[in-house]
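User: Sorry, folds how?
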Amino acid sequence: MASRSRVLYVGVTNDLVRRVSEHKRGLGGFTSRYRVTRLVHREEFTHINDAIAREKALKGWRRSRKVALIEGSNPTWRDLAEGWSPSLRSGQALRATSRSFAPLRGAQDDNGARSA
């Protein structure tokens, strides 16, 4: 996720719609403080461990590499969640665990196991 001034936030969640909604409502310290409300990139994974490994890798990247990743698929940094209906739930289009630019701790996999 990103702010209008392009502050970046990387994280993992098992419910992208819910988590993006939380960011947009200002819930959470860092994202609220820096107004990180725009989903600018996302990736989906079948297994939570793969999503967490990718999150850790991305957090180790330099900012320039993250920007290149975003601009490769979203050159205008458009909010990919714009227009999402509140009725769209993870059980529909976003069933797989997603990794987005937003730090999300304590995500649960489909078996209820929590990540660190």
In short: The CA atoms of residues 40 and 89 lie 19 Å apart. The two ends are 20 Å apart (CA to CA). The chain is about 35% helix and 10% strand.
